[in-house]
Write a structure and sequence with these properties.
Order of helices and strands: HEEEHHEEEHEHEHHHEHEH
Number of helices: 10
Structural class: alpha/beta
Helix content: 40-55%
Shape: globular
């Protein structure tokens, strides 16, 4: 029995090693943001020896986070290795950009353009062109997906709403989709950096976008595969359900998953196991 257990352990370790990708940290200077921006990149096994181009997932972090969270705290590399190794997800490059800091009152967070932080301009004009060229990425809608948690979940939804021609799918986890009720930050914030990002989520409401979408816009949104994933005790539960209801009203097909959980990394880690196969299934469509 001991020999059998040892053999299985060795086999499992060999299997994981055979399908081990790696995460590297890179950076680029942004003329829009006037600073260097770090980011993490997951490269699947065999990337260095291959000349092929790969589909891409943009994986966005949340408020109080940065580019390193999904790997260091969320176990992204292990999840990706396991799913690619088992065939549940295809080989892909995963890009984790930086859009904030834990010091939310003194450092600007967020995925939208605000005063002195034109992040969306940076993302589309500088970041995407740079990384998609550097890491041999298939630069078309059919092979590009976006997803994220909390602030990054809301950012991924809004990016797909504004650019449905650029993304095949969107997987929003515990998404911060609106803030009119002051769910994050409260109602009486002083006007610091946290106030600015909270206001930007109001100004770029994903819920309002769907509610106000005309038929032409709705038809474009239908070209994206949508998935909303939220815990039943999450502080953002209500706004996620409201967003899903607005999508149903406009007859935009979206999947909704409500699991037991709160707004934490235990939930987000498990959600990623569904998110990467979802993106993979919708590549190439």
């Amino acid at each position: 029995m001991k020999k059998l257990i040892l053999s299985l352990t060795v086999l499992l370790a060999f299997s994981m090693g055979a399908n081990a990708g790696k995460v590297i940290t890179d950076s680029l200077y942004s003329n829009n943001l006037k600073c260097w921006q770090k980011y993490n990149v997951y490269l699947p096994t065999g990337f260095e020896k291959s000349e092929q181009k790969y589909p891409v997932v943009y994986l966005l972090h949340g408020l109080y986070g940065d580019y390193s969270n999904w790997d260091k705290t969320g176990g992204m590399r292990l999840v990706a290795d396991e799913l690619i190794g088992s065939g549940e997800a295809c080989q892909m490059v995963i890009i984790m950009p930086n859009a904030g800091s834990a010091d939310v009152r003194n450092y600007q967070n967020g995925y939208f353009n605000v005063e002195e932080w034109p992040y969306e301009d940076f993302f589309y004009q500088e970041f995407m062109p740079e990384v998609e060229k550097k890491y041999r990425i298939l630069s078309d809608k059919a092979h590009r997906a976006i997803m994220g948690l909390s602030m990054g979940g809301g950012g991924s939804v809004v990016y797909c709403q504004r650019h449905p021609d650029m993304f095949s799918s969107c997987y929003a986890i515990s998404a911060w989709l609106d803030n009119k009720m002051g769910t994050v930050g409260g109602q009486n914030l002083k006007k610091d950096k946290l106030w600015i990002v909270c206001q930007s989520v109001c100004d770029n409401s994903a819920v309002d976008f769907v509610a106000n979408a005309d038929e032409e816009t709705v038809n474009k949104l239908r070209t994206v595969k949508w998935f909303i994933d939220c815990g039943d005790d999450d502080i953002l539960f209500d706004v996620n359900v409201l967003f899903f209801q607005k999508m149903r009203e406009k007859r935009i097909k979206a999947e909704l998953r409500i699991n037991n959980g709160v707004h934490n990394w235990e939930y987000w880690h498990l959600a990623l196991r569904n998110a990467l196969p979802f993106a993979s299934r919708n590549f190439g469509r």
